[in-house]
């Protein structure tokens, strides 16, 4: 088995008396989609915040690509290749799709493009941005203003922005939220293509999409991982069925 890209050991976090993450341990392997599912309020988003570095855990460790990153700030983790896809709110509506992605390329590369002649620097930025847009199937709309993109295209643009960070692991928090059936199918296809290039930690409510995509699934209930397993193991697991009682998501 390859070394894990991401390893969480005994991660715990309380907000006052409320335990939001309780002794969470899991791994994401290179080329794997590891999905986190769980009822509303189970602690999925706060877990993502701790992994990306915007929230400090009270206990436990986070290792990324063999390095302990528990104490590193968000930007340092991003530079190591831990990319979180941000919600649509981080897209600049008045910029084109290409400009939005070029901004992310520029943020990642810092001053490195400054050493090129201005025109060459801009061309290099745009080439990288175009490649990221092509990867998520948005090459045709590169020059459209982001505000005019459909909801599904905006979700694709978020993925392109995350890819422009040159990541090794993508942290995706509900990448299908608000997408219609056709958009969902398209996004599932894109995520499937991305799997061969990145490890993916996927938080997603759309259970059919999770079952279609995930190599492994961890089920979070009240901040605790109650089981990690393959799609078949999770579908048939009695405790998971109990946690979702009343929902037909596992049908
Ligand atoms: N900053 C905060 N201060 C206090 N409590 C918080 C804070 N952020 C989240 N919580 C609480 O922590 C718990 C876990 O929230 P979280 O958003 O991580 O759950 P979730 O599994 O992502 O939920 P959903 O599926 O509805 O998005 C919830 O009870 C929430 O109200």
Question: Which features does this protein show?
Answer:
single chain; 251 residues; alpha/beta; Rossmann fold; 2 domains; 9 helices; 10 strands; binds adenosine-5'-triphosphate
CATH class identity of the largest domain: Alpha Beta
Q: Order of strands across the biggest sheet?
A: 6-7-8-3-9-10
CATH H level, superfamily name of the largest domain: P-loop containing nucleotide triphosphate hydrolases
The gyration radius over C-alpha positions equals: 18 Å
In the predicted model, the low-confidence regions spanning at least 5 consecutive residues are none
The CATH topology assignment of the largest domain is: Rossmann fold
Q: How much of the sequence is in beta strands?
A: 15-25%
User: What hetero molecules are bound to the protein chains?
Assistant: adenosine-5'-triphosphate
Question: How large is the count of helical segments?
Answer: 9
Structural class by sheet pairing and helices: alpha/beta
What is the element string, with H for helices and E for strands? EEEHEEHEHHHEHEHEEHH
Number of domains: 2
Based on the structure given, which CATH architecture of the largest domain is correct? Answer: 3-Layer(aba) Sandwich
What is the overall silhouette? globular
Helix content: 25-40%
Please state the average pLDDT score: 89
Total number of strands: 10
Measured between the Cα atoms of the first and last residue, the distance is 32 Å
Largest sheet: 6 strands, mixed
């Amino acid at each position: 088995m390859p070394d894990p890209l991401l390893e969480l050991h005994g991660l715990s976090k309380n907000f006052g008396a409320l335990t939001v993450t309780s002794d969470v341990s899991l791994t994401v392997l290179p080329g794997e989609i590891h999905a986190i599912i769980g009822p509303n309020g189970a602690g999925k988003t706060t877990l993502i915040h701790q992994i990306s570095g915007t929230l400090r855990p009270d206990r436990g460790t986070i290792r990324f690509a063999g390095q302990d990153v528990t104490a590193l700030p968000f930007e340092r983790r991003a530079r190591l290749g831990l990319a979180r896809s941000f919600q649509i709110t981080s897209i600049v509506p008045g910029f084109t799709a290409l400009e939005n992605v070029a901004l992310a390329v520029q943020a990642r590369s810092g001053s490195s493009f400054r050493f090129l002649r201005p025109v060459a620097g801009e061309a290099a930025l745009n080439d990288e941005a175009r490649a990221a847009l092509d990867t998520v199937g948005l090459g045709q709309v590169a020059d459209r203003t982001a505000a005019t993109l459909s909801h599904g295209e905006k979700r694709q643009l978020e993925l392109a922005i995350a890819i422009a960070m040159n990541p090794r692991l993508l942290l995706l928090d509900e990448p299908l939220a608000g997408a219609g059936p056709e958009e969902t199918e398209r996004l599932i296809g894109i995520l499937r293509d991305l799997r061969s290039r990145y490890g993916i930690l996927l938080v997603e409510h759309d259970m059919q999409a999770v079952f279609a995509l995930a190599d492994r699934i961890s089920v979070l209930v009240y901040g605790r991982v109650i089981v990690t397993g393959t799609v078949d193991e999770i579908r048939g697991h009695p405790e998971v069925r109990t946690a979702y009682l009343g929902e037909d998501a596992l049908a």
